[in-house]
Specification:
Keywords: Phosphoprotein
Number of helices: 5
InterPro entries: Cell_Proc_Reg/RNA_Proc, FHA_dom, FhaA_N, FhaA_N_sf, SMAD_FHA_dom_sf
Strand content: 25-35%
Low-confidence stretches: 13-24, 222-246
Pfam family, one: FHA
Strand order of the largest sheet: 8-7-17-16-13-14
Number of strands: 17
Protein name: DUF3662 and FHA domain-containing protein
Organism: Microbacterium horticulturae
Shape: rod-shaped
C-alpha cells in the first residue's frame, strides 16, 4: 500500500459528510501530498554516505478559492500532510535539520486547480558541525584542535589502556577535518590504514587501541521562529482569517 493510499484513508476521517462536498473541483488533498513528496525528492541533498538532507519548512501556495476550501477542514489537513512528509522522509532515509513545518497559503497569482511548493531548510540557514561517535556517545569537535586519549587532560577522555594519554588530535576548521597521531605508543589507523596525519572524510573511522572513533559532519538547525500567540486558531495563523495575514 502506497503512502498516498494511507493518506487518503486518514484524510477520509476528516472530510467525510459535509466536508466531502469541498472537493468537487479545484485542488484535491492527495495532489498536495504528492507535491510535497516530490518537493522532498527534488531538493534532497547528499551530505554524506548515510545522510541526505531535505527541506523541513514547506509552504504550499494555492489559489484563493482552493486555499479557502482547504481551510475548511481545519488543522486535520495540515496534520495529515505533515505526517506524510515525515513518513516519506523516513522511507527514503532523508534527514531534516529541524522540526517539520507545513503551511497552506493563498497566492493571488495562482489559478484554481494549481499549486506551488516553496521550501527551505531550517529557515534557510544551516551550519555544519564536526562530531565523533565513541562507544555510543556523540562528542562535538571544537573549532581548531580536539585531543583524544586516556589522560584526564585530553579534551575527550576514553577508558582504553591501549591508548596513550594524548593519543590523537582532530583538527576541524568548520568545513574539513584532519586526524594527526601525537606520537602514540600503539599508533593510529584510519579506515584500517595506519596513518600519522591524513585528511578525515565524513563517516570515516579512526581506531586507537581498541576504540573506534567515527567522524561525522552534521547539520545544525537555525533557531526556531517565535510561536503564534496562544489562542490563535490554525485558520487565523495560516490564512489570516479575521484581520489579514498573521
Amino acid at each position: 500500500m502506497g503512502l498516498l493510499d494511507s493518506f487518503e484513508r486518514g484524510l477520509e476521517r476528516a472530510v467525510n459528510g459535509a466536508f466531502a462536498k469541498t472537493f468537487r473541483s479545484g485542488i484535491q488533498p492527495v495532489e498536495i501530498a504528492s507535491a510535497l513528496r516530490s518537493e522532498l525528492d527534488k531538493k534532497a541533498a547528499v551530505v554524506s554516505r548515510d545522510r541526505i538532507l531535505v527541506p523541513n519548512t514547506l509552504a504550499v501556495r494555492l489559489a484563493a478559492n482552493d486555499a479557502e476550501r482547504m481551510a475548511g477542514i481545519g488543522p486535520a489537513l495540515v496534520n495529515e500532510l505533515t505526517e506524510i512528509v515525515r513518513t516519506h522522509a523516513a522511507s527514503q532515509h532523508y534527514s531534516f535539520a529541524g522540526p517539520v513545518s507545513v503551511t497552506l497559503q493563498p497566492d493571488p497569482d495562482l489559478s484554481t486547480g494549481t499549486l506551488r511548493v516553496d521550501s527551505r531548510t531550517a529557515e534557510g540557514t544551516v551550519t555544519w558541525r564536526g562530531v565523533v561517535d565513541i562507544a555510543g556517545t556523540r562528542h562535538p569537535l571544537r573549532k581548531g584542535r580536539t585531543v583524544i586519549g586516556r589522560g584526564s587532560d585530553a579534551d575527550i577522555t576514553i577508558s582504553d589502556a591501549g591508548t596513550s594519554r594524548k593519543h590523537v588530535e582532530i583538527l576541524w576548521d568548520g568545513e574539513r577535518a584532519v586526524v594527526r597521531d601525537l606520537g602514540s605508543t600503539n599508533g593510529t589507523t584510519l579506515d584500517g590504514q595506519k596513518v600519522s596525519q591524513a585528511p578525515l572524510p565524513p563517516d570515516s573511522t579512526v581506531q586507537i587501541g581498541r576504540t573506534d572513533i567515527v567522524f561525522h559532519v552534521v547539520p545544525q538547525a537555525a533557531p526556531q521562529a517565535p510561536q503564534a500567540p496562544q489562542g490563535m486558531d490554525a485558520a487565523t495563523r495560516q490564512f489570516g482569517v479575521g484581520g489579514g495575514r498573521a
